Amino acid sequence: KEYQALRKSLEIPVVSPPLPPVESTTRDETVIHLAANIENPEQVELMLRHRLEGIGLFRTEFLALSADTIPGEEEQYAVYRRVIEEAAGRRVVIRTFDIGADKQNPNIYRDRGQNPALGVRGIRRHLICCPDELRVQLRAILRAAENGEVGILLPMVTTVEDIRRVKRHLEIARKELRREKKPFSPKIALGAMIEIPAAAFAAGEILKEVNFVSVGTNDLLQYFLAADRDNPELVEYGENPSPGFLSLMRLIIEQATAQGRQNDVAICGEMAANPSALPALIRLGYRSFSVSPILAPAVRAAAAATHLDQASPAIVRIRRSSP
Q1: Residue 307 to residues 64, 95, 158, 189, Cα–Cα distance (Å)
Q2: Cα angle vertex 274, ends 237, 293, to 5°?
Q3: Rounded to whole angstroms, how far apart are CA atoms 103 and 81?
Q4: In a 3-state reduction of DSSP, which class is residue 265?
Q5: What share of the chain is helix, strand, coil (3-state, %, to 5)?
Q6: What is the CA angle 171-176-178, rounded to 5?
Q7: 31, 86, 112, 125: most buried, per Cβ within 10 A?
Q8: Could you give the CA distance from residue 58 to residue 91 in angstroms, rounded to a whole number?
């Protein structure tokens, strides 16, 4: 009920055709890019209502977790095509199925490890046991992206080799579509999620293999702190970013900046919508964020109140501890 009330209070009347995105800036007029996290096609309208720049994260798990089977290529294609068309020319980033850990359906797949959060999930699941399922999803996205600006985002990337293996599957999918004479996008972007400390330390190498990266702070913080984000007794550990975690976040953006790729990095976790954390992330150098559409007004307000020359106490502590 509280969520529904908040959503209703933040709703903006639908305008057709949709109004262009609103530019977000800090107090010193540094431009901040805001996109939307969505979980189903109906939420594209919320992205447009709040005049965001596009969809930074489309979680496709809803297609699988709400059913007893993984949908086929045509069903997936129809959903992705709808989202891309309704996004009205704005960029859409589609994440491949992130199934495992807290997102499971025993009729589809269940990780039998003692600690599913550290087990076969995300892109690991596709590469280890479900490569055919991965290729079906890649084919559907490639076809749906024919006339749009679209990115494919890989969850739970651990090493550069994970990406290289996906690229081989992507090339197979392209060859199949060419042979079948089915139109598809030849210029789709490939991205990787940084949500494991190992990937954070290797962000520079990962960037050399992909077009963009998206930092999933929810899982990254969980693995960094060894604190289950779904355990209510451990909530306090993840409420505010510690200097140690901000140092890790700084390491990621520094590796990107060293390659001139800072504009290819976004944050899509809940920390991007945390008013107490957002200023610190902006001061570290992050400029692109993807949030729940209904939180866009609060995020814009937090950004507008941020001045890059006024470092937060956490940032000051990082600097003092740096060699």
Answers
A1: 43, 33, 34, 33
A2: 130
A3: 24
A4: strand
A5: 50, 15, 35
A6: 95
A7: 125
A8: 11
SS (H, E, C) 143-199: HHHHHCCEEEEECCCCCHHHHHHHHHHHHHHHHHHHHCCCCCCCCCEEEEEECCHHH
**R_g of the chain, CA atoms, integer Å:** 19
Cβ atoms < 10 Å from Cβ of 304:
13
Phi and psi dihedrals of 117, rounded to 5? -65, -25
Distances (CA, A) of 63 to 55, 60, 79, 294: 17, 6, 9, 22
| Assigned token pair, 213 | 């990266």
CA distance 251 to 213: 14
Non-local (6+) Cβ contacts of 92 within 8 A are: 54, 55, 58, 83, 84, 148, 149, 150, 151
Tens-binned pLDDT, residue by residue, of the chain (323 aa): 444 444 454 555 556 788 999 999 999 999 999 999 999 999 999 999 999 999 999 999 888 877 777 899 999 999 999 999 999 999 999 999 998 655 555 556 555 656 667 888 899 999 998 999 999 999 999 999 999 999 999 999 999 999 999 999 999 999 999 999 999 999 999 999 999 999 999 999 999 999 999 999 999 999 999 888 778 788 777 777 789 999 999 999 999 999 999 999 999 989 999 988 999 999 999 999 999 999 999 999 999 999 987 655 555 455 555 54
Q: Side chain identity at 219, as an amino acid letter?
A: D
Alpha-carbon distance 293 to 287, whole Å?
17
Q: Which pTM value belongs to this model?
A: 0.89
Tell me the residue type at 259. Answer: Q
Going from the C-alpha of 88 to that of each of 17, 32, 54, 91, the distances in angstroms are 9, 21, 9, 9
